[in-house]
Amino acid sequence: MTVNVRSESTRERIHAAGLELFSERGYTGTSVRDLAERCGLTSGALYNHYASKDDLLFAIVDRVHDLADEVLSAALLGAGAGAEAQLEALASAFTAFHIARPGATRVANRDYVYLPPAQRDSIVRRRRRVRALFASALRQGEREGRFSFSELGSEDAVEAASMAILNMAVWVAEWFDPSGARSAEDTAALHGRLALRIAGRPAEDGDLGWHYGARGGV
Asked: How do residues 65-93 score in pLDDT, each as one tens digit?
């Protein structure tokens, strides 16, 4: 048991080092030697825990998606049955997720493309499932008469709206300033309301509450 615990601790140390280095330098800018030095291990010892740098990247990216799935599932569970509440909850939760984990989400969203085909395809399927959650809420809202895409004249308007909302949440990790005037919580809530605007729901009084360009914004 002691050996297993120690081995798991070392594996987690390598995982943390990989996450830091990939976030700082990118996957292609990080060597196995860099990883070993950051962990205080030899390259051979590192290979005892991860068969390759690719396997380490996959473990990091896969874990980020596990956490994202948990966050989005909880958001849907707490939102209720209505499409507006579901979309707002999903967008707010996904934004908060990226704000809280800028390094991890940067690696997951940027470097997964360097994975070998089978591992990359696995991650792509997971990403498509996330997009499908947003698209499902948008389509439900259209059925409920709360959202409208038909006037846009495009058959893939729902998919485009899903990507717009997802990208809005993903990129917040690159510009959000924790020392800025807007808190993480308020920023996430704003992005939930912005998702409703993208979906076509009319604004209500005080709906946005602030403007981009303020400290902590773009």
From this structure: 999 999 999 999 999 889 999 999 999 99
Task: Report the topology of domain 53-218.
Answer: Tetracycline Repressor; domain 2 (1.10.357)
Residue type, 124: V
* Each residue's pLDDT tens digit, 149-176: 877 666 788 999 999 999 999 999 999 9
The C-alpha angle with vertex 110 and arms to 119 and 176, in degrees rounded to 5, equals 140
Q: Please say whether the structural domain 1-50 has been given the CATH code 1.10.10.60.
A: yes
Cross-strand bridge partners of residue 212: 214
